[in-house]
Design goal:
231 residues, alpha/beta, Rossmann fold, two-stranded parallel sheet, binds NADP nicotinamide-adenine-dinucleotide phosphate
Length: 231
């Protein structure tokens, strides 16, 4: 098991789903963890802060207050996402889907100068970036831009490392569906995948922990998708 004692981590979007699972794993591995998102939250052994990743002034203050921190994880979805056929898509909705990218870019731009030299960043893309699925052109473009950002910016922020996790279809509160509808959504969505089930938040968080811990990895993406991309 990873040992992060003596390390300080900020997890944005750290109050739900994959971000929350990462918050809890970091805490359990001994890190001092600050979980940030727009909601009020209470997580045992974790400092919760209310912050919007699109609010640069608030983010800047958070990083300044925690100057010298070691790990930045950003799993914030940022805002609403546009789903549906591209030729019928509302273009404001498409454009607004990029809130996720802007939240990530804000946090790396403002956070990295405040991080320790041995620090590491983890962001989350998403398998529609490299696998066509009807209705996902907007979120696929956002995921692709997140991955390009990681590959490229790694060169300019070294020795701080940056990597991404690319989740497949993961069972998290991102989907509001309940009961049979929920089971059907994840069942149908993964039926063709090599591992025909939705992933768990913990399976994705485990990849983030690996990327924070392994000091020989930067500028890359780990797919945690049940083989969705290669299917
Ligand atoms: N679940 C999947 O199937 C899947 C698939 C591919 C990619 N991903 C990616 O994986 C990452 C995590 O997804 P998830 O499923 O864990 O989502 P989730 O359960 O909906 O959690 C999203 C988190 O982001 C926070 N957030 C959203 N907008 C924010 C903002 N403007 N400022 C600060 N915090 C904000 C939310 O808290 P507040 O609402 O309180 O702010 C929440 O803590 C996302 O990048 C998502 O696109 C997920």
């Amino acid at each position: 098991m990873a040992n992060f004692s003596g390390k300080k981590a900020i997890v944005l979007g750290g109050t739900s789903g994959i971000g929350l699972a990462t918050t809890e794993m970091l805490r359990d591995a001994g890190a001092e963890v600050i979980a940030g998102s727009r909601r009020e939250c209470a997580i045992d052994g974790v400092e919760c802060v209310q912050v919007d990743v699109l609010d640069r002034a608030a983010l800047g203050e958070l990083f300044e207050k925690n100057d010298g921190f070691d790990y930045l994880v950003n799993a914030a979805t940022g805002g609403a996402r546009a789903i549906g056929p591209f030729l019928q898509m509302d273009l404001d909705g498409y454009q607004n889907s990029f809130a996720k990218l802007w939240g990530y870019v804000n946090s790396v731009r403002l956070g990295v100068p405040r991080m320790s030299p041995g620090g590491a960043v983890v962001l989350f893309s998403g398998y529609p970036a490299r696998k066509f699925r009807p209705g996902t052109i907007a979120i696929g473009s956002v995921g692709g831009s997140v991955e390009a950002f990681i590959h490229l910016v790694a060169n300019e922020i070294t020795p701080v490392r940056i990597n991404g996790v690319c989740p497949g279809l993961i069972d998290t509160p991102m989907s509001p569906l309940q009961g049979d509808e929920r089971r059907e959504y994840y069942g149908k969505g993964t039926a063709e995948h090599l591992i025909a089930r939705a992933g768990t938040a913990e399976e994705c968080a485990g990849a983030a922990i690996f990327l924070l811990e392994n000091e020989f990895v930067t500028g890359t993406i780990v797919d945690v998708d049940g083989g969705a991309i290669v299917t």
